[in-house]
User: What shape does this take?
Amino acid sequence: MTFSLVACDLEARQWGVAVASKFLAVGAVVPWAAGGVGAVATQSYANVSFGPDGLRLLGLGLSAEAAMERLLAPDDGRETRQVGIVDAHGGSATFTGSECHAWAGGRTGPCFAAQGNILTGPGVVDAMVEAFGSASGRLAERLLAALLAGDRAGGDRRGRQSASVRVHQADAGYAGGNDILVDLRVDGHPDPVPELIRLSEIHDLLFGKTPEDQLIPLEQVQAEVSERLAKLGFDAELERALADWAGAANLEERLYDGRIDPVVLRALREAG
Assistant: This one.
């Protein structure tokens, strides 16, 4: 009752899943990923154990195809299942059981597996694959482009309710504490995919990374930054005041010693 795209960016060492459905909180069930290991989407009468078990098998070095076979072989309900897997090397596999509700099917290619069931037709999966292949940018952006294309091509033929995107990269989580680079969900909304994209844009504002060569030496804008911070009530030593304001604005992940992120400077200017 869902359409999803599982994918990786081997150069960036990122693995992720984007999914949408006429199902409450689809992000709590379908997407599973681990940085440097792989990603899994389990859907259509989802066997949720396929998520952690699939990642465990991929972590042991099994290919996407081999992991899929190991997951499905002992499952008496396999013909009701739909699964997509991408492994640590970009190998991919998709499975659609014979008892999945039409239209149901999937496509694979290097670094991706796209699948869906109860769709308006095969054009949904085709649109996802085409959009993913032609999109530029980071993996999360490409996954969302694919999800939007599938949604606008018809998506789930019952309607819209929820959407999710997850991307994992080793040691890339908040403050480096885990591998969760992006984990966003829209659990109940009349048009969840555009809402998910809106949340992703906020996430990028707060947690995105500006290239080092685009950072501005703080001394170049010291007078302006000090004045703006003071007007906002932050009048400590410059870097301390900037850190206090950025923390209050949830921009602490964009702080650098002796330099200022253009995104932070723009947000400070917009603050008043």
Notes: Helices lie at 50-59, 64-72, 123-134, 139-152, 192-207, 222-231, 238-248, 262-271. Residues 2-207 form a domain with the Glutamine Phosphoribosylpyrophosphate, subunit 1, domain 1 fold (CATH 3.60.20.10). The chain has eight helices and 13 strands.
